[in-house]
Amino acid sequence: MQNFVFQNGTKIIFGKDTEQFTGQEAAAYGKKILLHYGGGSIKASGLYDAIVQSLREQNAEVFELGGVQPNPRVSLVREGVAICKEQGIDLILAVGGGSVIDSAKAIAAGAKYEGDVWDFFTGKAEVSGSVPIGVVLTIPAAGSETSNGTVITNEDGWYKRAMGHQSLRPQFAILNPVLTYTLPPYQTACGITDMMAHILERYFTNEKHVELTDRLCEAALRTIINNAHTVLAEPANYDARAEIMWAGTIAHNDLLSTGRIGDWGSHDIEHEISGIYDIAHGAGLAIIFPAWMKYVYKHDVNRFAQFANRVWDVEIDLNDLEKTALKGIEKLEQFFSSIGMPVRLAEANIGAEHFEEMAKKGTERGPLGNFVKLQEADLVQIFHLAK
Amino acid sequence: MQNFVFQNGTKIIFGKDTEQFTGQEAAAYGKKILLHYGGGSIKASGLYDAIVQSLREQNAEVFELGGVQPNPRVSLVREGVAICKEQGIDLILAVGGGSVIDSAKAIAAGAKYEGDVWDFFTGKAEVSGSVPIGVVLTIPAAGSETSNGTVITNEDGWYKRAMGHQSLRPQFAILNPVLTYTLPPYQTACGITDMMAHILERYFTNEKHVELTDRLCEAALRTIINNAHTVLAEPANYDARAEIMWAGTIAHNDLLSTGRIGDWGSHDIEHEISGIYDIAHGAGLAIIFPAWMKYVYKHDVNRFAQFANRVWDVEIDLNDLEKTALKGIEKLEQFFSSIGMPVRLAEANIGAEHFEEMAKKGTERGPLGNFVKLQEADLVQIFHLAK
Fold this sequence. Notes:
- Chains A, B: Pfam families: ADH_Fe_C (PF25137), Fe-ADH (PF00465).
- By secondary structure, the first copy, chain A, is an alpha/beta fold.
- Chain A has helices at about 20-25, 40-45, 45-55, 75-85, 100-110, 120, 185-205, 210-235, 240-250, 265-275, 280-295, 300-310, 320-340, 355-360, 375-385; strands at about 5-15, 30-35, 60-65, 90-95, 135, 150-155, 160-165, 170-175.
- Chain A contains 15 helices and 8 strands.
- In chain A, strands 1-8-5-4-2-3 form a 6-stranded parallel sheet, with helices on both faces.
- Chain A is globular.
- The model of chain A has no long low-confidence stretch (mean pLDDT about 95).
- The interface of A and B includes residues 1, 2, 216 and 243 of A.
């Protein structure tokens, strides 16, 4: 087990009707609130009105910035930074899913920085502090509600880049599973894939003695797998929605990383695809993760066999561990298919035309991944496995 | 799943040589540090010197209060409160195990209160704030390093009582598994039992839809069980010590309670025993938990069968779930025996002479437990099962 520092102080307020506490939680940080959100769904559902009312009851001064798109854009982040600087915003309240929260985080960091916020994503500058962030989560997927990271897309060249800082962890996150009842099946499945991918990125490590975190990862994966078909068949099943929502947070709050170095190659590869094609992040992961696994499993057949056995109940064949390992990958791929995800690029209408370009762009700052270090040529091969 | 609020912001600094960061972490809270510890073991091991040096390097003014005993006493807590009030202590640094940390927490709360600190334990007063607490952990067991609770014994009547408050969570906790190499086997086993009991108290709940936390509990239990004999056979096995140490924290940081109400009857019953007999808390739990299980398992045979199957690999006998359930209890009892714990009161030289007295005292503020509510007569029967 490696040395580690773990601190995640985000206050989770979980359960039915919890959005009513938004104003009360926000009030601890000041009066000037920037309400940040995506499209019209929170207005149609009544959530927008409920939150504005909750904020007004605390005499908050509410500023607004809507319009966050999937794969959130740096141009909107810059608008948010300007509002924060002009108005002296005390708290950015992100109402939505990972895109909205990531956008809020980038704004939060940019508001405390003289230069351009994209500098944080190119490594030109480091975050030194942020405006506090609060969250009302509507899409369980990205885990951004308690993570320290953000992923933003720069339209100028379609670069999709990540950065993180401890100050970017939201102060509070309100999670009401009822708010996820109206998520369409495809988006629900994308979220499920994303949270599973967050766990898988951590699971495939070269660290040998990480039994507790291995087992915690397996516990979270099994729970997600066991509830996925239920939430798709019964969108208003509270208990199943609650399991998925809480698992999505645990998947990415850094507990499952303690003592180990995860891989993250598949996420980086997917960023290249969704940077160009505007495919949903979860769908991209459903395609790339099995391909990545097929490409790297020989690096540690035992770990893949353990994954097959403990997560998918594949019996361990001691005479043919490779067979056991491959069955686990097959089960994962079948599962993604069964929840309506594409598992080949062709299913997402993505051809081979940009393979070389994506492989080049993805590795221009160095090889990807930690479990196995992937060079440009490796990425091209993974894309071919994913065709 | 029940609604819940979860927040645990303790900064964990885990791994080899991490005690060197004590001064640096403490410095964030001020210069006046009350160093709180137990007996001479930290002086013999050199840990005391290393910590004092680390504090002095940050120009800290170090005050000292040693002498914490197992089942920490309110009389020493009162001494600590007086020092904090007189000297304006900025941080209480607990170096030791659960007793030292619990004592530090009581001091921290008492220092911010006009009346007598015992008032918090009788319900006469509520904690409203505390002096910040830091921890260097030497015994993985109680989980007090990130919990919000403390258990103190009042020698005047030998009452052992618990209380908790969010402000009592330590600000930081330094966990170096190497510091646990010198723990004697008996104390190691007591710690293992204590952390398992913390998980079991949470596991036995009447809440039906808590799959994620069930599985996380099972993951932590299996890890502890799988590493217990290793740390006893090889006291200096870093990886096994690390698994046990980190599991001890996870067992009691409240993550495993989310969405559910635990039982806690066995802990309360054990407090009556160790209040009178000065038996190690872990040893008391090894005796009481199996007895409690035998007394209550019919309340939810399915849950006990799940425990037997998922934690102990007992095959589920669908024609006789009760048999499956009982096998799980038997496995737990055998496990406690195998690590050198007593599983009967007689093994700890405790007779039946105080059964009625303990049952009466234990229930004088109401029935114990939540999974099954236990009255005075129930406690007597559990004591008889534990004879």
